[in-house]
Amino acid sequence: NKIQVGVIGCGAIGREHIERLTNVVPETKVVAVYDYVREPAETAAKQYGATVYDSGEALIRSDEVDAILVASTDDTHADYVMEALKQNKYVFCEKPLALTAKECEKMIEIETKQGHRLLQMGFNRRFDKGYVEMKEAIDNSEIGEPLMIHSAHRNISQSPGFETDYAITRVAIHEIDISRWLLDEEYDEVQVLKVKQSNHTAGDWLNPQLVMFKTHSGQRVDVEVQTDGAYAYDIRCQVVGESGTLDLPDPATVVKRNNQSVSNDLPSTWAGRFGKSYDDEFLGWAKGILNDNIVGASTWDGYAACVTTDALIKSRQTGNPEKVVMIEQPDIYK
Ligand code: ISE
Predict the structure, then answer these.
(1) Is the separation of the CB atoms in 273 and 235 below 8 Å?
(2) 97, 157, 171, 309: which to mutate for ligand 1, most atoms within 8 A of CB?
(3) Beta strands in 194-294 (DSSP E)
(4) Averaged pLDDT score across all residues of the chain
(5) What does the H/E/C string look like for 3-26?
(6) What is the rounded average pLDDT of the residues 133-161?
(7) pLDDT single digits (tens) 44-63
(8) What is the dihedral sign for C-alpha 304, 66, 44, 39?
(9) How many helices (DSSP H) and strands (DSSP E) are in the chain?
(10) What is the ipTM of this complex?
């Protein structure tokens, strides 16, 4: 008896996840799909033997659907998640959880009333082998107290329609989540600093941007966000502790020695860099559902990310550091 999954959003990442749930995760079967453009839903349905629904709401309420995967456009996440939580159904949501922190507060209220965790956020890096080992080293006190994190998020290109704030809400949001997970602290204050601009930008958005976080205990995190024109899809992360440092490794690849040099290839996109972490993320999701013990990032983490992105966007506009103000954390997330 497999977990019957309904997928909302059959675009690039939705399609990849449908394939994953079908071929990588033994416990799940995609039985229902919906997309506001009918064609990708029909293609996916044909290929994977699922039913096409006329609306996301109908899919969520359907008796044949046990769990929902939300991979639709960012502005639609909140309503679908809210409906799934109301139906007491398990739901996986790609980031961001919502466009505003206020919407996340409503979700927290509904989920808390249901009395158990239903939602897993699509913060896949928590399942990446390198980050997992860094977290273990920190938790085992192998570098003493972590003091700061230096990180970079570099992209070769973006799809058309990219905007300045997406550098925060779609790109740096990964560092927002992974840094507070590594440090196990909430942010107190955040800031966006101006940087000399790159000529390698396909549109008129700001690129690069330097994004900074300060935690309540005073740890500092800096993130260089290059959304376009970089030499590769490259993700760097160094945690500096009192007695040592930790560096995120590149994914395993052959080291070439030729022409009097040593080199190795780097990925061109997130799909190449983080493929394995997505597999593990969904294997974890299925187990969490079967044990009614959801793992990975929670609604609380999705909320924390939204409060932080709201403050960063404000900081970019005001030019000042801005406070991150959160509600009290309900017990089900502790
Ligand atoms: C995308 O949404 C991601 O998740 C990637 O990590 C990021 O690098 C990319 O720029 C985003 O579009």
Answers:
(1) yes
(2) 171
(3) 209-215, 220-226, 234-241, 245-247, 256-258, 261-263
(4) 98
(5) EEEEEECCCHHHHHHHHHHHHCCC
(6) 98
(7) 999 999 999 999 999 999 99
(8) negative
(9) 10, 15
(10) 0.94
Q: How far is the CA of 166 from the centre of ligand 1 (A)?
A: 9
Separation of CA 270 and ligand 1 centre (Å): 6
Give the nearest ligand 1 atom to 159 CA.
12
pTM over 0.80: yes
pLDDT digits (tens, 9 = 90+) for 5-55: 999 999 989 999 999 999 999 999 999 999 999 999 999 999 999 999 999
- Angle in degrees, CA 103, 281, 289, rounded to 5: 75
Domains of the chain with bracketed CATH: 3-124+276-297 (3.40.50.720), 126-273+305-333 (3.30.360.10)
- CA of 240 from ligand 1 middle (Å) equals 25
**Ligand 1, CB within 6 Å, residue ranges:** 153, 155, 170-171, 174, 270
